[in-house]
C-alpha cells in the first residue's frame, strides 16, 4: 500500500506544479498552458500504464484498457482536471489519479477484463474560464450542444474553438458519446466539507448530489464623472448591484433546508476609481437538495433584479447552468459498500453540497461516488488537503468494484 500512497502523492504533487499562480494555489484554466502541461502528464501516465489514449472534440482525455468482449461498454473512472482560480491540488485530480492507479493495479495484476476500463480526465467542470461548468461531461452526454459549445467565450472574448487550437486540440472530433458505450461511471472526490473529518470516517458513500443553478446578472446604468455628477442624477450600476447582492442571503435563508446562494464573481465597468460604473456583471450560484427550492430561488432572484428597473437602470438575468438534484445508483452504492466492508474500511452515507460530473453522467449510465475527508473541511483554496492514505483506501475500493463491474 505504501507504494500506492507514494505514487498518489507523486501524481498530486506533479499536477499541482501546473498552475498559473505558483505559491498561491492551483489556477488551471481549461485549454490554458497549464491545462496542456497537466494533459501531457496525464496522457504520459496513461500510456505508461498500458492504456490507449484518446481525446474527444472537447479535449476530454480517455485512457482505455480494452476488454475481451468486442464493442462492449466501458467502466469509466475519473474526474476533472481544471480548477477554480487559486484553488487546491485535490479537487478533481484526486479522482483522475484514482482512475490512473486503478488501471495501474489492473496492469500490475495482469487483469484482462471482459468489459473495457476507461480512465477519464474531464475539462471545464468548474466553469472558471467559460462559465457554467460541468462542460466536459455535459458535452459527452449531449446536454451541451455543438452550437452552444462553439459560441462559448471567456472573459477576454476568446472562443472555446480558438482556445483549443492554441494548445493543439481538435474541436472537430466527436463530442457526444453514445450512452451504450458506458456501463458505469465511478468518481472519487474530496468531500470539500467537514463531515467526514469530524466523524473520523475515511470514506463517504455519496447518496445524492445537490441541485444547482448558476445565473449571470447584468446591471446597466450610466457612466459619469465621480466629482461633477450630483447624487440625484446618477444611475450607478454598482450601487444597484450591491443592493441586490445584499438581499440574496435572505432568499436562501427563507427557502431553508440547507439552501445556499453565493455571489463569487463580480466585474465592474469601466472600473475606474473616479468613474460612476455604467455596468456590473455578477454571478449568482444557488443550490439546494430539493428542486423546488432551486426553482423558487431562481424566481425570487429574477423578481429582485426586476424590482430595480429604476431610473436609467437596465438589468438582465442569464441562466448559465441548471442541474436538478441527482441520486447515485443504488446498485453501485451497494457494490462500493460491500467492497468497503470486505476491505474493513469504515464508511458512512453522505450527500454532496458540491456539484460533480457524476451528476451529469447519472442521466446516461450507472454512477457511484466516493468521498475522502478534506482537512478542516477546506476546498477551493490553496489550503485544500487530503491524506494520501485515504486516497489509497479509495483506490483499493474502486479497484475491487471495477474488477466486479468489468467482469459481469
Ligand atoms: O462548484 C462546485 O460545486 C464544483 O466544485 N464545481
Ligand atoms: Mn471538483
Ligand atoms: Mn470544485
Ligand atoms: Mn465537481
TrEMBL record:
InterPro entries hit by this protein: Amidase_Cbmase (IPR010158), Bact_exopeptidase_dim_dom (IPR036264), Peptidase_M20 (IPR002933), Peptidase_M20_dimer (IPR011650)
Domain of life assignment: Bacteria
Keywords: Hydrolase
Entry keyword Ribosomal protein: no
Single GO MF annotation: hydrolase activity
Limits of the Peptidase M20 dimerisation domain: 211-306
CDD domains: M20_bAS (cd03884)
Pfam families: M20_dimer, Peptidase_M20
Family the entry assigns: Belongs to the peptidase M20 family.
Protein name from the UniProt record: Zn-dependent hydrolase
Amino acid at each position: 500500500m505504501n507504494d500506492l500512497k507514494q505514487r498518489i502523492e507523486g501524481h498530486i504533487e506533479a499536477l499541482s506544479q501546473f498552475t498559473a499562480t505558483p505559491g498561491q494555489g492551483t489556477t488551471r484554466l481549461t485549454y490554458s498552458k497549464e491545462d496542456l502541461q497537466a494533459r501531457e502528464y496525464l496522457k504520459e501516465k496513461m500510456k505508461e500504464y498500458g492504456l490507449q489514449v484518446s481525446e474527444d472534440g472537447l479535449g476530454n482525455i480517455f485512457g482505455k484498457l480494452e476488454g475481451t468482449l468486442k464493442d462492449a461498454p466501458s467502466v469509466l473512472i475519473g474526474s476533472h482536471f481544471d480548477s477554480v482560480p487559486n484553488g487546491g491540488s485535490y479537487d478533481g485530480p484526486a479522482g483522475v489519479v484514482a482512475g490512473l492507479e486503478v488501471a495501474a493495479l489492473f496492469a500490475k495484476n495482469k487483469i484482462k477484463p471482459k468489459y473495457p476500463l476507461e480512465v477519464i480526465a474531464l475539462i471545464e467542470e468548474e466553469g472558471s474560464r467559460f462559465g457554467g461548468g460541468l462542460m466536459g461531461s455535459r458535452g459527452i452526454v449531449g446536454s451541451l450542444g455543438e452550437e452552444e459549445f462553439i459560441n462559448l467565450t471567456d472573459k477576454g472574448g476568446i472562443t472555446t474553438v480558438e482556445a483549443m487550437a492554441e494548445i493543439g486540440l481538435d474541436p472537430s472530433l466527436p463530442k457526444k458519446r453514445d450512452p451504450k458505450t458506458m456501463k458505469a461511471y465511478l468518481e472519487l472526490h474530496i468531500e470539500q466539507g467537514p463531515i467526514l473529518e469530524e466523524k473520523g470516517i475515511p470514506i463517504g458513500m455519496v447518496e445524492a448530489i445537490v441541485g444547482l443553478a448558476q445565473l449571470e446578472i447584468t446591471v446597466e446604468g450610466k457612466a459619469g464623472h465621480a466629482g461633477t455628477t450630483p447624487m440625484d442624477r446618477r444611475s450607478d450600476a454598482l450601487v444597484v448591484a450591491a443592493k441586490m447582492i445584499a438581499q440574496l442571503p435572505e432568499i436562501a435563508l427563507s427557502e431553508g433546508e440547507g439552501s445556499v446562494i453565493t455571489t463569487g464573481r463580480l466585474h465592474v465597468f469601466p472600473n475606474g476609481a473616479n468613474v460612476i460604473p455604467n455596468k456590473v456583471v455578477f454571478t449568482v450560484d444557488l443550490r439546494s437538495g430539493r428542486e423546488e427550492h432551486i426553482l423558487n430561488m431562481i424566481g425570487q432572484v429574477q423578481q429582485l433584479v426586476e424590482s430595480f428597473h429604476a431610473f436609467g437602470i437596465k438589468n438582465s438575468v442569464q441562466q448559465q447552468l441548471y442541474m436538478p438534484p441527482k441520486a447515485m445508483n443504488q446498485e453501485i452504492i451497494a457494490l462500493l459498500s460491500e467492497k468497503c466492508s470486505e476491505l474493513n474500511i469504515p464508511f458512512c452515507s453522505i450527500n454532496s453540497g458540491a456539484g460533480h460530473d457524476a451528476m451529469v453522467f447519472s442521466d446516461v449510465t450507472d454512477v457511484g461516488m466516493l468521498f475522502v475527508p478534506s482537512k478542516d473541511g477546506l476546498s477551493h483554496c490553496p489550503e485544500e488537503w487530503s491524506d494520501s492514505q485515504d486516497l489509497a483506501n479509495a483506490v483499493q475500493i474502486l479497484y475491487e468494484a471495477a474488477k466486479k463491474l468489468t467482469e459481469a
